[in-house]
Amino acid sequence: FVVCFFSRLIFGTLYPAYYSYKAVKSKDIKEYVKWMMYWIIFALFTTAETFTDIFLCWFPFYYELKIAFVAWLLSPYTKGSSLLYRKFVHPTLSSKEKEIDDCLVQAKDRSYDALVHFGKRGLNVAATAAVMAASKGQGALSERLRSFSMQDLSTIRGDSSSTVPPSVTVRTSSKQSQPKTSRSASEGTGSSGKC
């Protein structure tokens, strides 16, 4: 299997890719056509191979036959890719070209519509999640900010923070009791400062 994979990679893909490059560089139309026919046949072979590997991999010498087939396609003596293209692929594609083009246009339109539909759904889900997270996090954020502001108030007083009861820095629910506690705490610090 590994030998087949590397043989196919080298002889089925890299070797033809290099010679396709040389055909493009030389701008020889004959070489263009030759390598385009090869790539069309190789694409069909790779597609068919995806399914045949599932059902025929148990067949004796299956991988060796695949290597031989790729060599036959490439050989300048057998001209396998040219033969298959001219005898089977070109006549079949020519007779079915209109139907294939129509199917491709319909598939393109459907895929675009599906992409737009799923994109809108994804944005709606993301927006809903963001709103939910913000609404859940708003209460926690305001509590956190409130607790920080009370701590900041206690540190502004300086060393007198030790005389402030802990209920003032943590508890923020009662607004009326808070100023009284703060006044008594500041009066206590003021009277202790006079002594």
Provide an overview of this structure:
The chain starts with a helix and ends with a helix. It is elongated, with a radius of gyration of 39 Å. Mean pLDDT is 73; it is low at 161-178 and 181-195. With 195 residues, the chain is mostly helical. It contains six helices and no strands. It has a domain at 1-74. Helix 1 packs antiparallel against helix 2 (29-56), helix 1 packs parallel to helix 3 (62-74) and helix 2 crosses helix 4. It has helices at 2-26, 29-56, 62-74, 80-156, 166-170, 177-194.
Element pattern in H and E: HHHHHH
Overall pLDDT: 73
Percent range for β-strand residues = under 5%
Helix content: over 70%
Q: Overall 3D geometry? A: elongated
Number of strands: 0
N→C terminal distance:
95 Å
Number of helices: 6
Give the uncertain stretches in residue-range form: 161-178, 181-195
Keywords: Membrane, Transmembrane, Transmembrane helix
Membrane topology: Multi-pass membrane protein
Biased composition (Low complexity): 160-174
Region (Disordered): 155-195
